[in-house]
Amino acid sequence: MKAYLFFIAIGLASCRQEVSQLASFDSAKAAAERVEPALISNNQLPADGCEAHVQLDKPGATGLVLYKPTAESLSVLEKALQSSNSNEPFWGQKAVTITFRETGKQVELTCGWGSKKVIPEIEVLKITDR
Predict the structure, then answer these.
(1) How high is the pLDDT of residue 27?
(2) Which residues have a Cβ under 8 Å from the Cβ of 57 and sit 6 or more positions away?
(3) How far is 77 from 98, CA to CA, in rounded Å?
(4) Tens digit of pLDDT for each residue in 13-39?
(5) Above 70 in pLDDT, residue 62?
(6) More confident residue, 10 or 112
(7) Cα(first)–Cα(last) distance of the chain, in Å?
(8) Pairing status of strand 93-110 against strand 116-129
């Protein structure tokens, strides 16, 4: 009987620990979400540009802040590029507000003439027009 109580107590303790770990993971995941003004670019590689990417729109910032979307979230970026306003000319970049989460990975962004940049990867969660 004591053995049963011992195993039940251990089982309950481990369940409680697992639940608290899941709760802390969810809060860390939500805290990592960012909403920023950005310029999104389609794949300009055939015209000596770069692959599809996101550039944060930070006036006065020193240097470009570029991100590459994950393969899984690239469709969100492509859909936002296709929903372009018919009144404005489209030259490969579109001003948006983007909700994203950094993956913590550094990936290569391929550009024209075979050049490559190593930039952070993001999971694009939502894009709205500005």
Answers:
(1) 47
(2) 36, 37, 38, 39, 95
(3) 9
(4) 555 544 444 444 554 555 489 999 999
(5) yes
(6) 112
(7) 67
(8) antiparallel
**Helix, strand or coil for residue 31?**
helix
- Residue 88's alpha-carbon distances to 9, 49, 56, 59, 103, in angstroms, are 65, 21, 20, 22, 33
Q: Rg (Cα) of the chain, in Å, rounded?
A: 21
Residue 96 backbone dihedrals phi, psi, to 5 degrees: -145, 175
Measured CA to CA, the distance from residue 5 to residue 124 in angstroms comes to 48
13 Cβ neighbours under 8 A, 6+ residues apart: none
Predicted TM-score (pTM) of the model is 0.71
What is the overall mean pLDDT for the chain? 80
